[in-house]
Design goal:
Layout: H1 5-19, H2 47-51, E1 60-63, H3 78-90, H4 92-112, E2 118-128, E3 148-160, H5 166-232, H6 238-251, H7 254-272, E4 295-298, H8 301-307, H9 309-330, E5 335-346, E6 358-367, H10 375-441, H11 447-481
Parallel strand pairs: 1-4
Antiparallel strand pairs: 2-3, 3-5, 5-6
Helix pairs in contact: 3-5, 4-5, 5-6, 5-7, 5-9, 5-11, 9-10, 10-11
Length: about 500
């Protein structure tokens, strides 16, 4: 029986009206921006206030400013710039993050395919024999033909009306997952560039400390040699020699730890650049080759939540959970599908596409879950709890980020105090050396006093180098904590200048 056109049209009209319903589940709204105006309590000093006492090399915070994409160029070192570029080009971590982002984007396209009609073509060939008894007939009264061949071919199509928005919510979920992978790529870029700069600065700082330690040991050896000669001449007691030997032995403990720090930093830098430590030539970078940035961009809290990849990733994860609620909710309601098909059949293929052999169908199907042991409702409750957990994780991520920025700002203020104190100690020790040298040349003091003054000066220099190195480290930490300007960099395209070869993907 052919369905009535009026009946078919009315059914289709009803179904299409239903398809205009809004998707179930919450419509995601990004969390509101924080209302805090700054990161520090009113009584805490700013970087500029702490640096006011420094005679040179002052730093100041620049509220509201944003970090540039190539933030490491603020240190004005071409050699450092080259290291960072090599790291970006050769990092397997970035390559992996790009591939995962591409995979997530393909999954979005796959999910979007469900919004369109699905069409297919089927064909079959069979050799068969029928029995009259299967139809309740007598074989003698109604003889059937012997074995026969039958050929069938025809297209079919179906379309999910997505009445309650399950498909739309799944597309939204996959899009949020792609955003999450993009944020993870941004985070990988920020971590890579930050660690590369930190390790390069570590190498430069440790080398400066090693030079100061060598100067201290050289003074210790000179002291020991002079005291030994005076003892042999009967002009000094043996206890002075023991004291000089003890001082030398104590100062010799400085170098092994520094040399290990240097090796560790060099190995870490090699790995960041995508190279084996055994095949890596460490850069000849010195602190004197760098310039300490004077103006430090400090984004507003309301901007930071849109700049830091970890906060953006937490927001994307919250969006994923929101969409999952809609997916789980849609599974509680009917699924309406339209389908159509045409099949042509023939015994010998000669009349395969004659009208007499065509069979067509047009149908609207509806599937309503009736009983599943509460599984679907449990899935929806699970999605709701996931959303609550991710919302709490987002808030915690924001608080952690603000706390980190506050720590770095106060650290930079204290760095200025430490540098000022170490500068004062170095200036005092340098003046002591000058005075001891004058006294020695005038015959008013012995060489040991001059050497001891020089040793004290080198100790002060070692402390000053460490203070300056900590200042550089905290400056890098602040630039990274501000988001590192990743949003101005094109991270989706791999750099073809990678120094490492990798297995190619199968075609």
């Amino acid at each position: 029986m052919v369905p009535s056109p009026k009946l078919t049209g009315a059914a289709l009209f009803t179904v299409l009206c239903l398809s205009g319903c809004a998707a179930v589940g919450p419509n995601f709204k990004p969390p509101p921006a924080p209302t805090a105006a700054g990161y520090l309590a009113p009584a805490e000093r700013t970087i500029a206030e702490a640096n006011a006492a420094l005679p040179a090399g002052r730093q100041a915070d620049d509220p509201g400013a944003q970090v540039t994409a190539d933030w490491w160029t603020l240190f004005a070192s071409p050699q450092l710039d080259l290291l960072v570029k090599r790291a970006i080009a050769g990092s397997p971590t970035l390559e992996s993050a790009r591939a995962r982002l591409a995979k997530a984007q393909d999954e979005v396209r796959a999910a979007q395919g469900a919004r369109y009609p699905q069409a297919g073509l089927s064909a079959s060939a069979a050799h068969a024999k029928e029995s009259a008894a299967a139809f309740g007939l007598s074989a003698s009264a109604f003889p059937l033909p012997p074995n026969y061949n039958i050929l069938q071919v025809g297209p079919s199509a179906s379309y999910d009306l997505d009445v309650f928005g399950g498909v739309r919510r799944r597309i939204e979920q996959q899009s949020a997952l792609a955003d999450l992978q993009r944020d993870r790529l941004d985070a990988a870029y920020l971590t890579l560039t930050g660690n590369t700069v930190r390790e390069a600065l570590e190498i430069a700082a440790v080398r400066a400390e090693l030079r100061a330690a060598d100067d201290i040991l050289d003074i210790d050896h000179q002291n020991l040699s002079l005291v030994t000669k005076e003892r042999d001449a009967g002009e000094a007691p043996g206890s002075d020699v023991v004291l000089a030997q003890s001082q030398l032995a104590a100062d010799e403990t400085l170098k092994p730890g520094l040399e290990q720090q240097l090796s560790t930093a060099q190995h870490a830098l090699a790995v960041l650049l995508g190279q084996s430590p055994g095949a890596f030539s460490p850069p000849d970078l010195a602190l004197a080759d760098l310039s300490l940035p004077g103006r430090l961009p400090v984004s507003l809290p309301s901007d930071l939540v849109h700049q830091r990849p970890d906060i953006r990733a937490a927001e994307a994860q919250l969006h994923v959970s929101s969409a999952q609620i809609g997916v789980a909710t849609a599974r509680l309601y009917p699924d309406v599908t339209l389908s159509a098909g045409i099949t042509a059949a023939s015994l010998d293929g000669s009349a395969l596409f004659d009208n007499s052999g065509l069979v067509w169908s047009l149908a609207a199907g509806i599937t309503q879950p009736l009983f599943d042991g509460g599984a679907r409702r449990a899935e929806r409750r699970s999605a709701l709890e996931d959303f609550k957990a991710d919302a709490a994780d987002y808030r915690q991520t924001v608080l952690t980020a603000f706390g980190q920025v506050a720590d770095i700002l106060t650290a930079l203020a204290h760095d200025a105090d430490l540098v000022a104190a170490q500068q004062q100690a170095l200036d005092t020790a340098t003046e002591s050396v000058r005075l001891q040298r004058l006294a020695y040349t005038g015959g008013g003091t012995g060489i040991l006093n001059l050497l001891d003054a020089q040793r004290q000066r080198d100790q002060a220099l070692l402390g000053y180098v460490r203070a300056e190195a900590q200042r550089y480290e905290d400056t890098v930490q602040l630039l990274v904590a501000m988001g590192g300007g990743w949003w101005r960099a094109d991270l989706t395209a791999a750099d073809t200048a990678s120094p490492q070869s990798a297995p190619s993907a199968p075609g």
